[in-house]
Amino acid sequence: MKAYYYDNLPGDQRLPHDSSRPLSPDYLSSLGIIHHHFPPSTPTEAHPEVDRIATARNYKNRDTITISPTTLPNYEEKVKNFFHEHLHEDEEIRYILDGGGYFDVRSEGDEWVRIKLERGDLMIMPAGIYHRFTTDEKDYTKAMRLFKEDPKWTPLNRGEETEGNSYRQEYVKMREA
Ligand code: KMT
Ligand code: NI
Hints:
This protein has one domain: Jelly Rolls (Sandwich), CATH 2.60.120.10. By secondary structure, the chain is α+β, with helices and mostly antiparallel strands. It starts with a strand and ends with a helix. Helix content is about 20%, strand content about 35%. Strands 1, 2, 3, 4, 6, 7, 8, 9 and 10 form a nine-stranded antiparallel beta sheet that branches. The protein is built from five helices and eleven strands. The radius of gyration is 15 Å and the shape is globular. Nickel (II) ion (NI) binds near residues 131 and 155.
């Protein structure tokens, strides 16, 4: 895992866009993000710690998605959709089984913070945080997606409605506390 401010320069979203302004794990904590590194023994099986965390946090749902041009129908369109800024009404865990990718999350000043995830990285994002995702130049992310409740998988794209969303407001209050 590596985090830094996104450079906001035009160009392919899959490029690093590293502004050379690094951010620490403590900074991510202040945004309500938790990160661990649990390398899986094979690219198909979660590390036992992942199951332990999921059970402890009462997670009920998970799936595995392989985001690559050969495994995901309409790859280009899906990657564009993942890159639309959105939030979820539930906390979500992303665990990288293989490959890698970038999650961008909004800072408290509404800047993009880019989080580079690699195999074995586990990230817990709080409900209500604005974010987006992209593969990197290798076009290959195999990720386990874990959600607490059923069926809040729907991304809510940022707009007037998400500003008034109660999960969003709770998140902002938590960040400011
Ligand atoms: C999300 O919440 O934006 C995603 O699930 C992206 C795909 S998972 C690596
Ligand atoms: Ni999302």
